[in-house]
Input
Amino acid sequence: MGALASVALLLPLLSAAPPAGADVPEAGVLQGQFARAAERQGVPVSVLLAVSYLQSRWDTHGGAPSVTGGYGPMHLTDAVTALARTAAPHHSEGGEDARGDSSRPVRTGGDAPVPAPAELPERLRTLERASVLSGIPAEELRTVPAANIEGGAALLAAAQREAGLPASADPADWYGAVARYSGADDSATAATYADDVFDVIRTGETRTTDSGQVVMLPAAPAVAPATGQVADLGLRRPAAGPVECPSSVACEWVPAPYEEFGDGDYGNHDKANRPVSQSIDYIVIHDTEADWNTTLKLVQDPTYVSWQYSLRSSDGHIAQHVPLKDVAWHAGNWFVNAKSVGLEHEGFLTSPDSWYTEAMYRTSARLVRYLAGRYDIPLDRQHILGHDNVPGTVASTIKNMHTDPGPYWDWAHYFRLLGRPITPSAGPHAGVVTVRPDYSSHQPVYTGCVTAGQACAPHGSGAVRLHTAPSADAPLVKDIGLRPGGQDSTTGVNDTGARASTGQSFAVAERRGDWTAVWYLGQKAWFSNPVKEPTAVNARGLVLTPREGLAEVPVYGRAYPEASAYPAGVPVQSVSPLPYKLLAGQRYVVGGRTPGEYYFAPVFDPSGHTVVRGQEEYYQIQFGHRVAFVKASDVRVSRA
Output
């Protein structure tokens, strides 16, 4: 009887809702849908709005699923969708050696069984339960925003009832229900999620969604939630261990094995003594290309590769695998590995409409702020790298470098959460620009998400395309490292040859109307940058160019020492240039200065490891979509 009544109440609401992909609804429609669902289910509207914000930032995504199979503003999850995307774990694709050092055997590949639907945790099956509770068919929960919101409200109301608590009008009484909604199976993650929801309630939010709707949540700074309710949920405690995380996130210890196999082989990381032995200069952002359980199984495989942290999409939960003092095998470039921390985010680069939850963005940003403060890492895009920004070590490895987290990662939002929003820092005639298109409205066509050559579904992107002339019809610039034969770059979702990403800064080569040219991979590269809808902001910065008398200087994918710096018993590593040239008259933005270093670690016993440091110094530069290095002795630096 209750289910039938619920369906009857919903009929007018659902019949009036626009289908996925419909024109923008009238102003206020989405706000009203939250209010009506909250009233019908007996949930405070501020709680419903804040939970939805933490999952989707109130976006509908046109009915497309998130990276973990979550649908709509309330991120109701579907197990089948989640399962369908677990076939190609991140480091199993392509020929990239995640360790990136020829002193050890190539380490890539890996496999883990995909769980059956019945084995998936409840957090990946919330859409099923929302359908039972609300009486709304699953397909409508996926595609109709009003239905999705009603289903999420029904889940919250059920959590409150199951806790034996009344449907109070006071948001403070809903802390336990919010914690339960997270789907977390441990108390720390559930509490962190609920804390974030109530932080949104206290501070308020206003945002224009992807459907053009303005949604508002007024600030309520006096709300003091009953945090003790989480203790009554019966959740486990996270695995204890030597975690290195800020207190503002939920973090557990799931160690990666350090194991010797015999015949000199071992995995899946190296012992070290950072930052005493080497500074930690970079944080590398990855996506996993696998579901959470598969990710954890792989990083616990001694024959696989490793990274320091994994982050779960549904609730932002963090697992640490490798101590920060040690070197994980994740970036495909040994110089970067030896001086970085790797963060793997549960997600899928080529899902046409993939989207990441606000919960994961927020905990990731807190972790990065903590790491940056601990190791004095600048919060900029030349030190907070995507895996797709890490250079190949030598010419032969460029084609196999990975391309995650790809064009759908929202770098602008991420840097706002880091407390370093990307804003103009110079006037209209600045010599440097920083890429920053409007993520939601900027939707360049990508191809190959599902089928090679076919267009991906429209989606917001933080990347701009680079052309050989100031015209959208002009060919894209070439990347001779990716295509030694000189072919043009493509619109492929994994093709980084003519792509500049949000937060990356480049020296201006020319301005012409609504187009701006920058120096990129040794050539002049144009991108659309209209005055009324700019895709870049003007910026300050240091730039470098070949020193006087040099027509060109070589560019490197790693900053290794000169031959004379190597002690006896340590093989000299070649300082092999990439196939690009930095030509006289061109300028590139400087990311920092670093000594030439090589971490010699070819054996299991760390007593046989050596850090080789030379006199040669390098500058890191934003050379293309990926960073690169040039010798300090080859260039001169000036302010743009």
